[in-house]
Amino acid sequence: MKEFELIKRFFTEQAIKRKDVLLGIGDDCALVTPVERQNIAITTDTLVAGVHFPHETSARAIGHKSIAVNLSDLAAMGAEPTWISLAVTMPDVDLEWIEEFCTGVFELCEFYNVQLIGGDTTQGPLSITVTAQGITPIDKHITRSGAKAGDWLYVTGEIGDAALALKGIFNEVEIAPEYQDSVRHSLDFPPPRILAGQALREYASAAIDLSDGLISDLEHICHASKVGANIVLEDLPISNALRDTVGMEKAIDIALVGGDDYELLFTVSEDNRVGMETALANSGNTITCIGQLNGSEKITTTLDSKPVAINAKSFEHFSQEAE
Which end of the chain is more exposed for a tag (fewer CB within 10 A), N or C? Predict the structure, then answer.
């Protein structure tokens, strides 16, 4: 099957037909109609086989995650997702794989009312690039740079299970049978916290989604906002699966630097705490306060009120020298 036949069969027809899409797939460009008094938020992520997902990952999971990681960026800005462009590079045309991949893509698009409006298909090593766009009301977006000393530090959901799944895949740990499905689901099908992000734009002073690890992503907030933070380690939202598999000390390390959580890390002033907690409860999201910001411009951690050194490092592209 050739490129344009593939596009027509798998990508042109979809359930979502947004009224703000004037022209979608099939021309040199897509045309969308901006909403009055709304900002457009734009993000792009590339997922590469063997780097962002194991080679044996199912096509449906790859499709889901490709969309989810981009929608997670929009959630961190408080944006409502609207349109995506999708570029897929694959070694050959495997019709069964493509159909399963599209299932993962369109399941998430339909759930969040997101329309695929364009992209590209090419031949080469497996990788997927998505550009996602969303809208926020004027002056109602969240950035990394608004946090202040004294703000409280929160995270949605639980953290560390996706990293635990990877350790299981690479035979670094043995995961009990009763936990294997849940931790693999955390890795393959992360839920973008869209409703939480939209609720937070009324309350949060800063936010970021957790992709590279809690410490690494918190550093981005601290740098942009010129603040420091202390994390209370015993308050980290760690699952029974992670704790039972590796023990509490190692579980904390994994939760701090593991990455691939795609939860929201955000800061809230004392005045906004009660309103935020009520709003997030109404959106169906669980949240945990894990620390507080300060003026030190450094990140510290405490356990039972005693300082603890941070030894582990988060993932960073190009951080290792080429062999």
Answer: C
